[in-house]
Amino acid sequence: MSDLKALMLREPRLTLAVAESLTGGRLQAMIVAIPGASEFFQGGVTAYSLDQKVRHLGVDRAGAAAVNSVSKGVAEQMARGACVLFKADVGVATTGYAEPSAEWKVKAPFAWWALARRGPRGGFAFSSGRVDCPGLPRVEVQERVARAAFDALAAWLRAPAG
After folding, report:
1. What is the pTM of this model?
2. Per-residue pLDDT, 24
3. Using N-to-C axis directions, what is the helix angle for 2-9 and 138-158, rounded to 10°?
4. Residue 162: in which H helix or E strand, if any?
5. pLDDT at residue 122 in the model
6. CA distances to 43, 55, 113, 135, 158 from 153, in Å
7. Cα Rg of the chain, angstroms
8. Which residues of the chain have pLDDT under 70?
């Protein structure tokens, strides 16, 4: 995990913010467990309801309501919103289902993670992925998704720019 600190502090130094829903703070806990995380971590928010995703992260209400706030697009909006809210260079977000949902016809837990990186001209570059968790209990789903987002962030930072 300390690899993340080295990646964030190499030139150009980057700052990080987090927006979580499904993972309920687990991703932030992983980040702040790194000694010296205060050198790059700006903060995070757990926005569990649609109202809070809209209010704090700028998520599009109509689009998110149509998918119960679970989609690649919503995760990307949340990651971008974390960057804006905390004035960070990089944002990471999670949203999904920790359990099956008959109402939304979800047979097995799954989630989306997304990364947003502020560009030199103010736009954002995104990366995202889906984590499927069939048969896993709620807490294991949350832990698996937090780990997937954390690992994706480190891999994205390791990749050559461009």
Report:
1. 0.96
2. 97
3. 40
4. none
5. 81
6. 16, 25, 10, 26, 9
7. 15
8. 1-2, 161-162
**pLDDT of 28-58, one tens digit each?**
999 999 999 999 999 999 999 999 999 999 9
Distance CA 135, CA 107 (A): 10
| Residue pair 95/75 in contact by the 8 Å Cβ criterion | yes
**147, 149, 150, 155: CA torsion to nearest 10:** 120
Residue 27 and residue 94 in contact, taking contact as beta carbons nearer than 8 Å: yes
Q: What is the DSSP string of 79-120?
A: HHHHHHHHT-SEEEEEEEESS-BTTTTB-S-EEEEEEEEE-T
How many CB atoms lie under 10 A from the CB of residue 132?
12
The CB density around residue 87, as the number of other CB atoms within 10 Å, is 11
Where are the alpha helices (H) located in the chain, listed in sequence order?
Answer: 2-9, 26-32, 50-57, 61-66, 72-86, 138-158
The pairing of beta strand 110-118 with beta strand 124-132 = antiparallel
